[in-house]
């Protein structure tokens, strides 16, 4: 005998497929819901929750929205089940992607998507370049999204300003789930952005200026009155000593041998008389050798005076 249990066959998961009239979040009764506008989730009626629990669908709940008139599709998550029966409330950017108007019928179907590994975005405005760390800003804003669809234009808000980004590419599929995943993000140049053309500077060329060249040499000569441009004159009428002459004299004086007391001049010739003077006082570093003082050690001399006629 064969015994069959009740759990022998796996339960067949039936998809959720319903049609609702869609409205923007601004039409939702009650207080303004900015949290819905900043993300990629919709608000559905309570009856949808009861039907989803009976169908035993996979979590997290991901839905495919289809506009049958234009065949435009996108994917989203669900935020709450508090909408009026027969109505769903969508963010404005999502209605723009699906080309939907207020009260238009939209088809909502439950789907299962692969986990994202890569995505590429293109800002639609050059103002996005003013953000210091765009990847960190995007990562923070994508926490309000459940999935991404290639070709959608999502809207994120940062510093009280709304930025629109086009989803150029997603991997491993055209629609991916971004909940609890490691996803690599890249940015394409914004729409209308033109990179500046940099002209390389040729060092040593006619059009470029080398870095070693003195900037004063390439400045134009001053025209008109120029202060302190003449030559100076001495008040006593003598010629001013040029710098080159003073340098030559200092070099010649250094070339001369300094006179040392007690050593004869071996280059002396007959008929020459040389007076040796100290051109400069001895410095503190130069020590002049001195002999100890002894009384009456010097040589004597005779004092002669003229005789008087008396």
Automatic annotation (TrEMBL):
<dbReference type="InterPro" id="IPR004854">
    <property type="entry name" value="Ufd1-like"/>
</dbReference>
<keyword id="KW-0833">Ubl conjugation pathway</keyword>
<dbReference type="GO" id="GO:0036503">
    <property type="term" value="P:ERAD pathway"/>
</dbReference>
<dbReference type="InterPro" id="IPR042299">
    <property type="entry name" value="Ufd1-like_Nn"/>
</dbReference>
<dbReference type="GO" id="GO:0034098">
    <property type="term" value="C:VCP-NPL4-UFD1 AAA ATPase complex"/>
</dbReference>
<dbReference type="GO" id="GO:0031593">
    <property type="term" value="F:polyubiquitin modification-dependent protein binding"/>
</dbReference>
<dbReference type="Pfam" id="PF24842">
    <property type="entry name" value="UFD1_N2"/>
</dbReference>
<dbReference type="InterPro" id="IPR055417">
    <property type="entry name" value="UFD1_N1"/>
</dbReference>
<feature type="compositionally biased region" description="Low complexity">
    <location>
        <begin position="249"/>
        <end position="258"/>
    </location>
</feature>
<feature type="region of interest" description="Disordered">
    <location>
        <begin position="196"/>
        <end position="258"/>
    </location>
</feature>
<comment type="similarity">
    <text>Belongs to the UFD1 family.</text>
</comment>
<dbReference type="InterPro" id="IPR055418">
    <property type="entry name" value="UFD1_N2"/>
</dbReference>
<dbReference type="GO" id="GO:0006511">
    <property type="term" value="P:ubiquitin-dependent protein catabolic process"/>
</dbReference>
<feature type="domain" description="Ubiquitin fusion degradation protein UFD1 N-terminal subdomain 2">
    <location>
        <begin position="116"/>
        <end position="190"/>
    </location>
</feature>
<protein>
    <recommendedName>
        <fullName>Ubiquitin fusion degradation protein 1 homolog</fullName>
    </recommendedName>
</protein>
<dbReference type="Pfam" id="PF03152">
    <property type="entry name" value="UFD1_N1"/>
</dbReference>
<feature type="domain" description="Ubiquitin fusion degradation protein UFD1 N-terminal subdomain 1">
    <location>
        <begin position="16"/>
        <end position="114"/>
    </location>
</feature>
